[in-house]
Amino acid sequence: MNQTQFQKAKKKKKRAQLPFRLNVLFFFVFLLFSTLILRLGVIQIVYGEQYRKEVERTESITVNTPAPRGKIYDRNYQVVVDNEPLHAITYTRTHTTKPSEMIETAKKLASYIEKPTDRVTERDIKDYWILTNEEKANAKITEAEWARFREKKLTDRDIYRLKLERITEEDIKAIKEHELEVVAIFREMNRGYALTPQMVKNEGVTDEEYAIVSERLEELPGVDVTTDWNRHYVYNDTFRTVLGNITSSEEGLPREKLDYYLARDYSRNDRVGKSYIEAQYEDVLRGQKAKIKNVTDKAGNIIETIEISQGRRGKDIVLTIDMELQKRVEKIIEEELMTMKRRSGTELLDRAFVVMMDPNTGEVLSLAGKQYIRDENGKVALRDYALGTITSAYAMGSAVKGATVLTGFETGVIRPGTVLVDEPLYIKDTPTKKSHSGIRPGPMNDLKALEMSSNVYMFKTAIAIAGSTYRPHQPLPIKKEAFSIMRRYFNQFGLGVKTGIDLPGEIIGWPGQSTLPGHLLDLSIGQFDMYTPIQMAQYVSTIANGGYRVQPHVVKEIRDPISEKDSMGNVIYSFEPKVLNRVDMKKEYIERVREGFYRVMHGSNGTARAFFANAPYDPAGKTGTAQAFYDGPIQSRRMTPTYNLTLVGFAPYNNPEVAFAVVVPWVYQNPKNHYPINNYIGRKILDAYFELKKDRQSNEQSSTELLHNDEQTMER
């Protein structure tokens, strides 16, 4: 074979191999395309919807069910306010959920749970009727009105309003009784914003209801079961008005503070404190909500819910209040109030107050008040009225004479030991001014005046402060600024100014408006200006501690919440004593009045000697009786002359650890019915305080001894 023939054969052979290789290549390409097409088919047919939602999904962060509020403890770390766990059923609607879908879910849910209908309004029924009777509702709009709607002269809101107005009584009666339950459920579903859980039922959810709904969540879109909480006040009505209240999920945020709360990440149906401690410390007690991420598609449907952070219970509050002492004090008030009602028979007497506090720190140990009422059935009841200690004011009588004597000392019109004659004062155009019948006319010094509660000693002191001189049967010219001079010094003790207690609603009392000479004398014996019980407690505390006006407070600590039972979290903030002012006078003046107060309870002529002279805790104090006018709830008896009884004091005398004020307004109209309820209450509350102290010290000693014995046993 020549060279030419060889080349031709070689080319022919190559041409024969090429189709085979191409066929192999085409075959592999075919397999690859087939695999790709098959894969695309699987993705589009099997996973297409899922991947489409993944591509189209958007994310939004919302808030889950609020966490429980913080607990409230008393000064001995006994739980006062707790949270009770509750079964709850919620509903969360999306941005695209139709009302008809919600009603369908409500109908199904109504077959599984019982929902009270007492909160259903006529408007709720009308809304339901329109949604379930669309054709009939549309027929209530005239052709002319529809034409105006198409011309955009009427809005959707206008058309809906016309439908509501034209629903008749017959239409409403067409709603069957069993449908009202559906209306009630739909009403709760439709509250609040989309993607925010709404509480459908959280009161009285039975275990059976909870289980049934849990098993049928797939057929109840948007419905979920969870654990809610309810505020539990451990001591029932004890100290109840001061603890305050929270709103229900039905009430939600208070309308008057809606913008304030919404700006702070609250939801419209969140429960918040609406009065007193619950409201005052809302920012502390509020729980930290659980954050969740709702992953939605472009249509607004929820694809996935992811928890970002768990909720946390609110911070705990420790009160200065001793709840065991508070219980005993309230019981004492109730017993004495009922005893006085039986003895006097007066319809005017209906309340009594006690404030007990540490005069050195301002910690309020007991803030108690009781009010005698008749309920709608005419049955007698005694309700908590502790708030009256800061929100109501009365003429306090001779209990304020310590402030009068100290004002006389500081203005220089009298000195410790100054003797004045107690005698009736006859001032022209003024009723006779004199001391009570137990004091015989004659000379006495400042200590005797306090011990026996001389009115005339105080009158003459006030006359001197006013720059005047008493002349029998003559007018008594005074400087009008005498009122402001006396009030300025009274203010230093907390009389006539706010005490600064950490509760809302405190009033300053009621200053008299007249500048007549006789009223200046009345001011000096506590029968012109009116003060609150908490002011009286601060006043006597200032005398007890040597002249420091300390701010009273009912919250002692704020602590981190902790999950372990019977354990307390770390202290976040501790309220330290706050001195509002130092009384601007010599310490010896304060000591002089303290001695006078001691004689009131221990002196041979002391007005409270019969009740306190034998007390082992060595008390000091000042009684008070004020001629006043009734200004209570019985309109027909307004301005009836009556008597208020008061008592302020502290103990022990040499090292005061507790100060107190007892105030009982409108005790009787006839002095012959005198019953010293103020002294009875005062003695019993001090006994209760020191008995509790002794019992606790004994228990601590027993516990220490037991622990010591156990340690010795282990060592053996």
Automatic annotation (TrEMBL):
The annotated region (Disordered) lies at 697-716
Q: Can you give the residue ranges of the Penicillin-binding protein dimerisation domain?
A: 65-306
Question: Where does it mainly reside?
Answer: membrane
Q: Which GO terms describe its cellular component?
A: plasma membrane
- Taxonomically, the superkingdom here is Bacteria
> Where do Basic and acidic residues bias regions lie?
707-716
Stored InterPro entries: Beta-lactam/transpept (IPR050515), Beta-lactam/transpept-like (IPR012338), PBP_dimer (IPR005311), PBP_dimer_sf (IPR036138), PCN-bd_Tpept (IPR001460)
Q: Where are the transmembrane segments?
A: 20-47
Location(s) in or outside the cell:
Cell membrane; Membrane
Topology with regard to the membrane? Single-pass membrane protein
Q: What biological-process terms (Gene Ontology) are attached?
A: cell wall organization; peptidoglycan biosynthetic process; regulation of cell shape
Q: Which UniProt keyword terms apply here?
A: Cell membrane, Cell shape, Cell wall biogenesis/degradation, Membrane, Peptidoglycan synthesis, Transmembrane, Transmembrane helix
- What Pfam families does the annotation carry? PBP_dimer, Transpeptidase
What terms describe the molecular function in GO for this protein?
penicillin binding; peptidoglycan L,D-transpeptidase activity
The record places domain Penicillin-binding protein transpeptidase at 353-685
According to its UniProt record, which protein family does this protein belong to?
Answer: Belongs to the transpeptidase family.
> This chain belongs to which protein, by name?
Cell elongation-specific peptidoglycan D,D-transpeptidase
Q: Which organism is it from?
A: Anoxybacillus pushchinoensis
